[in-house]
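For consistency, the fold was encoded as tokens, which produced the following:
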Amino acid sequence: MEEQVASYAPRGGLPALPPPVDTTSPFARLRTRFFATPLDAALSILFGLLAVYIVWSLVQWAIVDAVFVGNDRTACLDTPEREVGACWAFVAARFSQFIYGLYPIEQRWRVDWVFGLGAVLIALVAIPRVPFKKLFALLLLGVYPLVVLVLLTGGQFDMSGSGIAIVFMLAAAATIFLAFGRSSTVSRTLPMKIALWLTVLSAVVGVVSFYYAPGGSESILTFRFNTFAQIAFYAALVAIVLALVATIATADDRLAAVRLLVPTAVAIAFVLILTAPLGIPHVPTNLWGGLLVTLVVALTGIAFSLPLGILLALGRQSSMPAVRFLSVVFIEFWRGVPLITVLFMANFMLPLLLPQGVSFNQLLRVLVGVSLFAAAYMAEVIRGGLQAIPKGQYEGADAMALTYWQKMRMIILPQALTLVIPGIVNTFIGLFKDTSLVYIIGLADLLGTIRRGFNDPVWITPSTPATGLVFGAFAFWLFCFSMSRYSIFIEGRLARGRKH
């Protein structure tokens, strides 16, 4: 055996192996990723040279040959000595118009306050470690929009009795909705059933009061109500009282039921603030423009499309045939119509359908159209999240004897929204970029204001259009990229929470 083993043993030992190939240094990674084969090396060199050429051309156009200071077009015209690149002097000269549009110069402090308050509140809500999140979220979603409306327009609106009736009808609906979330038995009480029907009556009669006003009008406080508006207003008030009575009678915590007065308090504050004389001049919306209009349209669409999309998604999965049918019809209709068609309909066709003497601001019509359009797409995104929730989550919520709204609010919707964060943010980004379409119907958003500047004879040069469009593209990219990165941060934070 020893002889056989010895015959197979190498004489003189094995040859020394070469050292292992370095795969961790920068040069090694470069070699393995870009120069592993002759074809990889050739393609890497070709595309590398192309990238260097493109980057250098952009740097030369945007910085080296650019004009940063000038009073008119002569500063940005080519000369025999050199070829002019970007005309940043045009952007600097019209920068304030790109931000404010034609908003009066002496009143632009109001826009600055709106931008500043919005940035601070968004930061306080977005930063995870900041305390009092609920308070800041309430200020951002409830108080801030009202402040924006009053500051930008000047307030002192002339509200009709029909409009006030609709506001209190919405307060009654919000009160009933909150009552359903606090008690599982309140919906079966007689006062709550009467409150539901009175709210429906208030909604129907309130809408009719815009079109038909029988008899004379009566003054309540300083507001004029026609007969139908009075019926809608008093029906909403009685519905609020009955909802409070039903909740107090069935709730374990009587003090918590008093919180149902919040929607009514908000409605009263809303009417008083909008109609109160604040002493600041009125600025019509046709003077708004630039980044101001872009942010107003985008943020309004984002703020309204998410809650409306949630309700539509829940309605599409509802077991009630009427609710499901109406939700499906709404979603499929708005998803099947291009946004530009929606804007044209809101701008030109809607005024023809309104009764004589009733009109809505052009910007308001656009905001409604954009919000409804985005809500249809948002509903499908959220429906995907609802369908991804395991069936056991629904069964567990039912086993805890939770009401439908308690189950959705505390168990189902938080998980569903977490799953579809990328889709939600993608819809937000698409909506933000689609705001540039409002220029077609005459609203001067950021891109529209920039394009109007191209026709200014003081700044007509060959490089002016390219410079303005690059500036606009960078502004849109900055906002969209910020939303994308924040969504990635939220996804990672929620993923870490699920792992632990």
Notes: The radius of gyration is 31 Å. The chain is about 70% helix and 0% strand. The CA atoms of residues 33 and 403 lie 57 Å apart.
